[in-house]
């Protein structure tokens, strides 16, 4: 009995110890869980704190940038961007040629690509364009006569009147049928007055009406100091222009392919007609004289139209190509004459040679 009681007490003690261990383990588990929860909460708080700190920094940066955008930067602190390279099509400066380099009293030299003035010697002073007038005659005829093979008859009246006036002639005779092309080349290469009047009458019915068209064209091109009274350029006080105005006209004409072809031709043979069964061979003598004088800078003279009267002196409109650029030169009022030194030729060669 006593032994049983002892065994019972031992069992109770053991259960009590086991229960105490379970309680202790449970308390330890609860403590560890609480500790882990605290650690997790602390970590979450630290993460939020870091995020808030970063947001504040970003806001400060944005605010600084905005403030900088509205803050004037001192000029010395501005970083200048590199200027872009100049495109090849931009105007290239030209060296201005002094007017003293030519004999003629007036001269105007222009680069065609951008109308840069290379020389201006009394370019706006009044001149008498004489047969340079025929440049306007030719372009007005080209723009009004589309069929260059159309026939035009030169009358006896035209021939007789012009011979009486002492005008330069192509060599056609009264009653001869020529093409418009023949008359255009005759007007340019041989400076034939009968060719000019034949074109004028074909375009407008009369020379007077044609001259009105010439003056209208001059007004349209801004040739404000120019007035024509004839299509041939025969002397007359009211037939006047300037080298600058004639250069404006010349530049305009060279845009026309038909005009350019005629202007740069050295020879042309007119149509076969009964009076001229082999045609008339026209030779551009002024172009021959110009090309005989080689340019020392490697350029070439492509075309030329000369004129002379006692009131105009020697005049010349010429075209050259130097390097990749074309140039036009109009000179007037040189002291020479057809039997003297050809100053208008030497002037063109001298001026073109001075272009680099």
TrEMBL record:
Sequence ranges assigned to domain Peptidase S11 D-alanyl-D-alanine carboxypeptidase A N-terminal in this UniProt record: 101-331
Binding-site positions, substrate: 305
Gene Ontology molecular function, alphabetical: serine-type D-Ala-D-Ala carboxypeptidase activity
Record's keyword annotation contains Protease: yes
Region (Disordered): 1-21
Transmembrane segments: 30-51
InterPro entries named in the record: Beta-lactam/transpept-like, Peptidase_S11, Peptidase_S11_N
Chaperone as UniProt keyword: no
Family annotation (SUPFAM superfamilies): beta-lactamase/transpeptidase-like
Keyword terms: Carboxypeptidase, Cell shape, Cell wall biogenesis/degradation, Hydrolase, Membrane, Peptidoglycan synthesis, Protease, Signal, Transmembrane, Transmembrane helix
GO biological processes: cell wall organization; peptidoglycan biosynthetic process; proteolysis; regulation of cell shape
Family recorded in the similarity comment: Belongs to the peptidase S11 family.
UniProt-recorded name of the protein: D-alanyl-D-alanine carboxypeptidase
Source organism per UniProt: Blautia liquoris
